[in-house]
Design a protein that fits this description.
By secondary structure, this protein is of the alpha+beta class. It has 2 domains: 9-59, no CATH class; 63-232, Umud Fragment, subunit A. 21% of the residues lie in helices and 24% in strands. The chain has helices at residues 9-14, 19-37, 42-60, 228-232, and strands at 62-66, 81-85, 100-104, 113-121, 125-128, 135-137, 140-142, 159-162, 167-171, 193-194, 198-207, 213-214. Strands 1, 2, 3, 4, 9, 10, 11 and 12 form an 8-stranded antiparallel sheet that branches. A 4-stranded antiparallel sheet has the order 7-6-5-8, with no helix packed on it. It is globular, with a radius of gyration of 28 Å. The chain starts with 8 loop residues before the first helix and ends with a helix.
Length: 233
Amino acid sequence: MDAEAQPTERDRSSCPDDTGGTEERSRFALVSRITDWLPGGRITLTLLVCLVFLLLLSTFVVQPFQIPSGSMEQGLRIGDRVLVNKLAYRFGAQPRRGDVIVFDGTGYFGDADYVKRVVGVGGDHVVCCDKEGRIEVNGRPVDETAFLYPGDSASDVPFDVEVPDGTLFVLGDHRSDSSDSRDHLGSPGGGMIPVGDVIGRADWIVWPYDRLTRLRRPAAYARVPATAEGAHG
C-alpha cells in the first residue's frame, strides 16, 4: 500500500498562489531597470510620466491658448491665457450662439488659430443692423451691450448673410479692432468657419491669476429662434 500522503483538494487550495507576487516583482524589476538606465533615475522617470500626461491632456482634453490681439476686448485682453475645452463639441454637441471658440483659420482667415464669438450657426440668418444699430439673428435683435467693447457699434460694415449648415458666423467683441467673418465675406468659404475646424470652447481665463474667470455664454441669444425659418413661421 502506497503510504505517501496525497494532497487533498483542500490542501491544494490552501497553498498560496505565487502568480501575483511574481508579476509584482517583474513590474518592480522593470521599473528598476528603467530608472537605472535613465540619468537622474526615479526623478527623471516621474518627470517623463508627467510630461506624457500633460501632452495627452493638451492633445485630447484641454489646451492653453494665449490671446494674441485686442479683438476680443474687453472680455479677453492681449496676453491673457485661456483654457480651451477640446471635448466641448465632441460626442454630438455643437457650438452655440454666444460661445467663445478657438478655431484653425487656415484657408479662411489665415494660417493661424483665432479666438472669436459665435454669432450665427448653421441655418441662421444674420443681419446688421436694425434701426437701433443691433445685430438681428433670425429676425430677433440681439442686445450685445454686456460683452461688446465700450463705445463700439455692433458693426460699421452692413451685412446680410445666411449661415450654411455645418458652419459658423463669428465676430470679435471689439468690433472696431477685429478681423472676423465680416472681413471675409468675399473670401473662400464666405467668411464662415467650418465646425470641423473648431479646436474647442474657451472656458476659463487662467492667467494672470487676478483675472481668473470662467467664461460663460451670455443670455443675449436666449430668445433667438432656432432657425431662420422659425423666425418667419
